[in-house]
Amino acid sequence: MGTYTLKSIGKSTDYMTIVREMEDGYVVRIVRDEDGYSDVTTDYISKALFDSCIRTGYLTKVSAANMPNIPAKAKAVAQSTVVTA
Question: Are 74 and 33 within 8 A, CB to CB?
Answer without folding.
Answer: yes
